[in-house]
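Chapter summary example.
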Amino acid sequence: MSRPAIPRRRRSLRWLRLALIGTTVVVALVLGALAANRFAGPLPPRHLVISTSRVDGAYYAYALEYQKILASQGFTLAIETGPGSVATLKRLAAHEVTSASFRAARLRLTLPA
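The structure predicted for these 113 residues follows.
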């Protein structure tokens, strides 16, 4: 038994309905992506720089551990060494590094706001 033929007008209404639904879905997805981008903010940087004191110090060892942990998550961590806490803090204040490890008990510095 053969199926009855669908009238041409009814077939065009199907395509029109399908196109309308598809367009609505695409517009909703685009608006959702724009809203998510607006409120979520940018992604975090994938490359970080940490400043520590000497290579034989404890903070350098901690920085190496952070480097391993961040590498397993897809981040890179560059470790910059310096002569001590004052130089490390100055690098952080100058925005040369994104993070720093230093002993603050001995520091008596005033940083500009």
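To summarize the output: The chain has two domains: 7-42, 47-100.
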